[in-house]
Amino acid sequence: MPSGRGGCQKPVDSKKEELAADAAVGAIALAFLRNRVCVPRDMSAGAAVALETTIDAMLSSIY
C-alpha cells in the first residue's frame, strides 16, 4: 500500500504542521543572526545593513 493508513506517508495535517514548525525554526535562526551581527568584527557596516534588510524581507515573507 503506497499511501493511506498502511503506508509510510504522513497525514496531510501532520506534514503541514511539520512545515510550519520548520518555518518557525528558520525564522528564529534568521532573527537571531540579524540581532547578533557584529560590526566591524563580522563584516562592514554597509554589508551588515544589507544583511539585516535582506533578513527582514525574508522574515516578512515567512510571516
Short description:
The protein has 63 residues and is an all-alpha fold. It contains two helices and no strands.
Structural commentary:
It is a single chain. This protein has about 60 residues and is mainly α. The chain has one domain. Helix content is about 70%, strand content about 0%. The chain is built from two helices and no strands. Helix 1 (about 10-35) packs antiparallel against helix 2 (about 45-60). It is elongated and about 50 Å long.
Q: What's the N-to-C terminus distance? A: 37 Å
Strand content: under 5%
SSE class:
mainly alpha
The oligomerization state is: single chain
Topology, number of strands: 0
Shape: elongated
Largest sheet composition: none
Helix and strand element order: HH
Taking Cα atoms only, what radius of gyration do you get, to the nearest Å?
18 Å
- Give the mean pLDDT: 84
Helix content: 55-70%
Uncertain segments are none
Number of domains in the coordinates? 1
Total of DSSP H or I helical runs spanning 4+ residues: 2
